[in-house]
TetR family transcriptional regulator
Amino acid sequence: MAAQAKENRGPAAGPENRRALIAAAREVYAVSGYSTPFSAVAKKAGVGQGSLYRHFPDRTALAVAVFDENIRVIEAHAESPDGTLDGLFDLIIEQVLVSSAFIDMIVADRDDERVVQLAARIRGAADALVARERAAGHINTSVDADDVVIAISMLASTLTHGDAELRAGMVRRAKALLWPAFASAPIEHRAD
């Protein structure tokens, strides 16, 4: 039986194709890594190469689209009255574990204006959370958004380049190191 040709819906299919490409990219790069051919994303999404390049002319554009979705979640967390730095770190960890190949793409083009804008949005979310946590007395008054951004970078790098089988332990250790540094009062060192 011959395969039926896919109907060309033209521009109306654009938003659906874009969502399919982002979802496919998350899956393809999570499994195969940064070196996966760009065309594998189009194939996985079930769209043509032309559609891929119309939406994402390069790998950085695709990585920025993936991170844009991630950062929207972070911004919503920061805007929520219940948002905390601990929750932010949990979100970052969750996102890094499924987006590590994209981190390499972003780092490779860190001076690209699209990437710079993403970093500014993360900084904005960190500013909001630090202000709230400081006002509530949950963190040391010397902690600022730059400290949070450095902690995020350290978490992302460690989890992205660490042994996948050891990640759960790395997450526990990273959080155990971060919280005493951010705490509003010195925390006694416990020998476990």
